[in-house]
Write a structure and sequence with these properties.
heterodimer; A: about 140 residues; alpha+beta; 3-stranded antiparallel sheet; about 40% helix; about 30% strand; B: alpha+beta; 2 domains
């Protein structure tokens, strides 16, 4: 589900539109709130409170009974609802494979492409040290 | 006597209307969008998120626009906004060791595993104003290199393997994490509260405090062991799901300061450390924070605490720019009654002074 948290609501919705969805209802309406983000002293020590972030959550139940939960950073409640819907769908016998193949897999691929590009741009700024021999240059 | 003063309503309303126009400026100039602020003034957004203590780029951009670019005013707006939302809980502590690094430099080791990665930095620019940026500038596409999958361990982890640096203090079992947004601050404060305070503290204040330690007011002989900036994953232990769910990622800057070593009869000497962590790309902030964090450990490390940066009550009570600006700026609100009473007292004292200093002869003549 990490892939969905990194996607935009519009991207998830567009992928879901291509699937004939079963009946479902909001178990918990999307709501906005805060999460206290924690770091660790020295990066690996005792936790401390760094500061908050906005987050959204929602829960969806399929007509067939599966319950899905959606959580994401930010204030886009619709995105939390779409994640909850996907979470419910992946648990269903009839829709799990389809959602994995038509929604999550393509979004994962997009995410990987974005990350690869960023990593390559970053890699170009890596310093290659060389030592000058005395008398040279 | 309390005198209610009314009559300012219309002036206030009109002043705010005028402010809205001043904020917009010349309307023949296109309005700035939140996306433009977020994308093109990204470091201002980072600062407002850090010191506003709320990670939300869009809200920070809105605050900057509303505050006409006054970042402390924007931070104030963000702090006020966070009070309007319920808190769902706390995240799992983020793992900065697993950061997708966009920048990572060490001033202590040239050849660190994973390498020195400059990323998008002002370092090594000539600080000359660039007229090309004035209009219609299109940057060259970034150069591409071969991305490595090798891990980029924290420099302090490498030093730690040989015991050359103190290890990070671990939490005691069942210890709760201090939160200064929930409980009033008491002194002495533990390191978790100190770091929370510094993380939301004013960059200028921390910069000056950190600088003062370098100039000799609580010297602690720092090296920038490592500064890294990049993306970390955030997970949230959701009660209804029963395990930690991914929330997405945030950008952080981390600074590991490596400081003067210390040993005792029972412990071999090793480097000590100071730590800085902040939202976004906030290098000056995290470096300053790490210097001050180390300075505030003076007592714990058995050092004489004589300098301002080593005085936790002084530092923690003055680091918050929202509190500071509130108290400084409240001076411009009406103090008419306070001032009248001071004026009355001063007149009385001056009268007494005049009477005491009138020569006796004149007094007698007057009588």
């Amino acid at each position: 589900m990490a892939v969905l948290a990194h996607a935009e609501a519009g991207e998830i919705a567009a992928r879901l539109r291509a699937i004939p969805l079963p009946g479902h209802q909001d178990l918990r309406e999307p709501e906005n709130g805060l999460v206290m983000l924690r770091g660790r002293v020295g990066g690996d020590g005792a936790p401390f409170n760094l500061g908050e972030a906005t987050m959204s959550r929602a829960a969806v139940r399929l007509a067939s009974g599966e319950v899905g939960f959606g959580y994401t950073l930010g204030r886009d409640g619709e995105k939390a609802r779409l994640i909850a819907l996907c979470d419910a769908l992946v648990q269903s016998q009839d829709f799990g494979a389809t959602v994995e193949r038509d929604v999550i897999a393509p979004l994962r691929e997009q995410l990987m492409i974005r990350r690869k590009q960023a990593a390559e741009e970053t890699a170009a700024t890596k310093v290659d040290f060389y030592t000058m021999v005395r008398g040279e240059g | 006597m309390y005198v209610a003063v009314k009559g300012g309503e219309r002036a206030i309303e009109n002043a705010h209307r005028l402010l809205a126009n001043a904020r917009r400026g010349d309307q023949s100039v296109p309005e700035v969008s939140l996306d433009q602020i977020s994308e093109q003034l990204g470091l201002a957004v980072d600062r407002v998120m850090s010191e506003g203590s709320l990670y939300d780029r869009e809200l920070a951009a809105l605050a900057i626009k509303q505050a006409r670019g006054d970042l402390i005013e924007a931070i104030f707006l963000v702090r006020a906004f966070r009070a309007t939302l319920p808190r769902f809980g706390a995240s799992e502590p983020v793992d900065t060791g697993a950061m997708r690094v966009q920048r990572r430099v060490s001033s202590t080791f040239k050849d660190i595993p994973g390498g020195q990665i400059l990323g998008p930095t002002f370092d090594y620019t000539h600080r000359l104003l660039d007229p090309a940026l004035a209009e219609g500038f299109v940057p060259e596409v970034p150069a591409m290199g071969e991305a490595s999958t090798a891990p980029t361990p924290r420099v302090t982890d490498i030093l730690g393997r040989d015991g050359l640096i103190e290890s990070s203090p671990q939490a005691e079992d069942g210890a709760s994490v201090g939160d200064l947004t929930r409980e009033p601050l008491n002194f002495p404060a533990d390191r978790d509260l100190r770091l929370q305070n510094l993380a939301r503290g004013d960059e200028g204040f921390l910069l000056a405090m950190g600088y003062s330690t370098q100039r000799g007011y609580g010297r602690n002989h720092p090296f920038a062991g490592e500064i890294r900036f990049g993306e970390v994953e955030v997970e949230f232990a959701a009660e209804d799901v029963g395990f930690a769910v991914p929330l997405g990622s945030i950008e952080l800057t981390e600074c590991q300061m490596v400081n003067q070593f210390k040993g005792s009869a029972t412990e071999a000497p090793c480097f000590t450390r100071g730590y800085g962590l902040a939202f976004g790309q906030s290098e000056r902030k995290t470096m300053s924070m790490a210097l001050v964090d180390r300075a505030l450990r003076a007592r714990e490390l058995g050092e004489e605490a004589l300098a301002p940066a080593q005085d936790e009550e002084f530092v923690m009570s003055h680091s918050d720019n929202v509190q500071a600006t509130g108290f400084v700026e409240h001076l411009k609100l009406p103090h008419y009654v306070d001032f009248q009473s001071e004026l009355g007292l001063l007149r009385k004292l001056r009268k007494e002074f005049a009477e005491a200093n009138t020569p006796n002869a004149m007094k007698e003549a007057a009588e």
